[in-house]
Amino acid sequence: MNITILGAGAMGSLFGGLLAESGQTVTLLDINDTHLEAIRLQGLRLETDSGDRRVGGLIACRAEQATGQPDLLLVFTKAQHTDKALRSIASHIGEHTWVLTLQNGLGNAEALCRHVAPERVIIGMTTWPADMAGPGHIRSHGQGVVRISSLDGIECQASNQVAAVLEAAGLQCRADPQVWSSIWEKVAFNAALNSLCAVTGCTVGQLDAAPQGVPLARAIVLEVLSVAQAEGVTTDTQRCLDSVAHAIAHHRTHKPSMLQDVLAGRPTEIGAINGEVLARARQAGIAVPHTETLLGLLRLIEARSAAG
C-alpha cells in the first residue's frame, strides 16, 4: 500500500516508521525541516520495546514537495491545523485515496469531510504512546491499540484492509463499528489529564500530589462521558476511570503534549477536546463546569503566550 502520513510528529513518525518497516511505501509530510532532513540523511530512528534501530526507505518532505496520490492518507496533524494541511495537499488526494484520521479530540471527521468525500473517510483512535526524542528520533515504550471504522459505521472492505495493514505493522488494529465509544473515552481521558497538566504544569504523576487532583480528574471524565451518552454513544465509564488512574500511577514523569505546547508557547488542542465537549454539552443542555473552567484557563494561557 502507498501510504502518506500528514503530520510527522512523534505519533505520525512512529506509525510511518512501523508501516515502512513492515514493507509499505511511506511518505512523511511535515513542516519540521530539521526532523525531515535527519530522516532523509540517516533514516528514522525508532526506540520501541522491540529494540533501537533505524528505518530507511522513507520519503520525508514538505507537503508542497509531495508527488503522486496515495492509497491511504493518514492524518496526524493537530486538529487546529487540519484544514490548512489538507488544503496544502489537495491535489494529492485522488478519487481512490482513503483518508484516515487518528487525531485527538472531536470534530476531526467533520474537518476531513470539508475536503474529502465522506464515503472516503475512515475515523479512528489510538492509544499508542510516542515522544520525539530529537530530530529523526522517536521513542515509544509500552503498548497501544488502534480502532477504526468507516464514517457511517458500516463494515466495508476498505476499513478492513486498512486495519489489516496496520495490524501487520504491529499496531494492534482492528475495524470496530463501535469506534465512537473508544473516541469519546479517549476524549474524556485527554480532557482530564492533558488539560489539568497543561494548566498546572504538573506531570501526569504529580496530579496526585494534592488530595484534590485525582477527584478532579475523575469529575472531568464523568462530565465528558455524560455528553457522550447524550449523543447516544455508549461508553465504559469504569474502564475510562481505570485508564486515568493507571496513567497517574504508572506514567508519573510523562508530560502530555498539551503541557509541552504550553511550555513551548504554542497553541494547544484544547479547542478540539474541552472546547468541542463544551459545545456539544450546551446543545444537550448539560452542565460541564470543570471542563469549561479548564478550557477558559487554557485560553488565557494561550492568549498570554500570543501577547509575548
From TrEMBL:
<keyword id="KW-0560">Oxidoreductase</keyword>
<comment type="function">
    <text>Catalyzes the NADPH-dependent reduction of ketopantoate into pantoic acid.</text>
</comment>
<dbReference type="GO" id="GO:0050661">
    <property type="term" value="F:NADP binding"/>
</dbReference>
<feature type="domain" description="Ketopantoate reductase N-terminal">
    <location>
        <begin position="3"/>
        <end position="152"/>
    </location>
</feature>
<feature type="domain" description="Ketopantoate reductase C-terminal">
    <location>
        <begin position="180"/>
        <end position="302"/>
    </location>
</feature>
<comment type="pathway">
    <text>Cofactor biosynthesis; (R)-pantothenate biosynthesis; (R)-pantoate from 3-methyl-2-oxobutanoate: step 2/2.</text>
</comment>
<dbReference type="InterPro" id="IPR050838">
    <property type="entry name" value="Ketopantoate_reductase"/>
</dbReference>
<dbReference type="InterPro" id="IPR013332">
    <property type="entry name" value="KPR_N"/>
</dbReference>
<keyword id="KW-0566">Pantothenate biosynthesis</keyword>
<dbReference type="Pfam" id="PF02558">
    <property type="entry name" value="ApbA"/>
</dbReference>
<dbReference type="GO" id="GO:0005737">
    <property type="term" value="C:cytoplasm"/>
</dbReference>
<dbReference type="Pfam" id="PF08546">
    <property type="entry name" value="ApbA_C"/>
</dbReference>
<dbReference type="InterPro" id="IPR013752">
    <property type="entry name" value="KPA_reductase"/>
</dbReference>
<dbReference type="InterPro" id="IPR008927">
    <property type="entry name" value="6-PGluconate_DH-like_C_sf"/>
</dbReference>
<dbReference type="GO" id="GO:0015940">
    <property type="term" value="P:pantothenate biosynthetic process"/>
</dbReference>
<dbReference type="InterPro" id="IPR003710">
    <property type="entry name" value="ApbA"/>
</dbReference>
<dbReference type="InterPro" id="IPR036291">
    <property type="entry name" value="NAD(P)-bd_dom_sf"/>
</dbReference>
<comment type="similarity">
    <text>Belongs to the ketopantoate reductase family.</text>
</comment>
<keyword id="KW-0521">NADP</keyword>
<protein>
    <recommendedName>
        <fullName>2-dehydropantoate 2-reductase</fullName>
        <ecNumber>1.1.1.169</ecNumber>
    </recommendedName>
</protein>
<dbReference type="GO" id="GO:0008677">
    <property type="term" value="F:2-dehydropantoate 2-reductase activity"/>
</dbReference>
<dbReference type="InterPro" id="IPR013328">
    <property type="entry name" value="6PGD_dom2"/>
</dbReference>
